[in-house]
Prior knowledge:
The chain is built from 9 helices and 7 strands. It has helices spanning 52-63, 76-87, 103-117, 141-162, 179-182, 188-208, 226-229, 234-238, 252-263, and strands at 43-47, 67-72, 93-97, 122-125, 171-175, 214-218, 274-275. Strand 2, helix 2 (76-87) and strand 3 form a beta-alpha-beta unit. Helix 1 (52-63) crosses helix 9 (252-263), helix 3 runs parallel beside helix 4 and helix 4 packs parallel to helix 6.
Amino acid sequence: MPKEKKLQPPQQQQPPGVEAQMEPKPKADDAQYRGSGKLKDKVALITGGDSGIGRAVAIAFAKEGADVALVYLKEHQDAKETQDLVKNQGRRAIPIAGDITDEAFCQQAIQQTVDEFGKLDILINNAAEQHPQENIEDISQEQLERTFRTNIFSMFYLTKAAVKHLRPGSAIINTTSVTAYKGNKQLLDYSSTKGAIVAFTRSLSQNLVGKGIRVNAVAPGPIWTPLITSTFPAEKVESFGADVPMQRAGQPEEVAPSYVFLASDDSSYMSGQVLHPNGGEIVNG
Length: 285
């Protein structure tokens, strides 16, 4: 059995994970990325907006001229850093802390965004959790329900609350995963939710197309985020990303342009589709 390639120092955190404690820190702000006003004066709500992919999307959106609401659980330090990074681009950001498994909180987050910015143009359903287990027998009822509530129920809750504020030209973008297409033997419940997100995206796109609202998704492969260091053992983290064709984990800043594309008029003739920034995996989906 070949020894797994070491890509980063072995490390482990308690969930939900803090980006500030990762080594090396994920790259969220691509210095080469130059905005061109693709999202000028738009307003976006991003779940999981404090760190990882959510942080990178918030920065890229700000560079394109958008203001953002950052919805997160309790990682206040990460959220403040993301807020500052958005402000550095000359745009506004508001942090909204709470549990997206609670429908009342989801309604509150949407309303707070509209109250603060006066509108909502883009909904990014991005937040997720995962709990690796070796055997299906080890997945408790509590874990199963929690994973589904965080990863897919929340998308229903937020979309239900957001739709009345969205107008023709608005966009909804859902974060699914490569695991929806190829599976993962240790992430049975997580992979199942990600498959549900693909079906939700396709169905919701048909439901809202008559209102001029586009719905698409992004299916990242292995991306270096706090989700990894807070859910996998240290030795797994050390080689995370080595099994894809590019033989490395992706950085959040490499995923963010997919969201910019799907949120902007560049993708005006796309709905119900999924983009695959996954390090070269062929998933035919």
